[in-house]
Design goal:
- It is built from 6 helices and no strands.
- The protein has helices at residues 3-13, 34-42, 62-69, 75-84, 91-101, 126-137.
- 44% of the residues lie in helices and 0% in strands.
- It is elongated, with a radius of gyration of 44 Å.
- The mean pLDDT is 77.
- It has 140 residues and is mostly helical.
- It has one domain (3-137).
Amino acid sequence: MSTSLLRRGLELLEPPGRAKVPPGLQRGRAGPRAAGAARRRKRAPEPGRNKATVKGRVVKSAIEEYHKKKPVNHLRENLQYMLKGRFVADKAVAEQVFAQNRGRKSKDQPPEKTEKKKPKVTVFTEEDFRKFEREYFGVP
């Protein structure tokens, strides 16, 4: 919404006895140099100690700073924390949680398990077929 529309809406909501504010008392920028003057007013010098002096300053040791920021290896504590709880969830519960967290897109779905086709193995051998053929058809 633009500011002009907002001003018109506020004028409609004003009580009828109230007059417009004279242009000299309006808030806002008085000219192109108003922003610079506001900036200068904000940067007034603060009373307090002069930071350019050395008096009262504590000297920090570079070695102490290095030791403070040195990375700490938490592997041992983490391993103890992980090994302390030996609770293993049921496979059915784990599958249910995985199914709930899986997305709906096809790329998030696990590949369908296809059953491997077993080669057809017969109980009869070629010799048995020849023997049956001789007995049934009478072929020598």
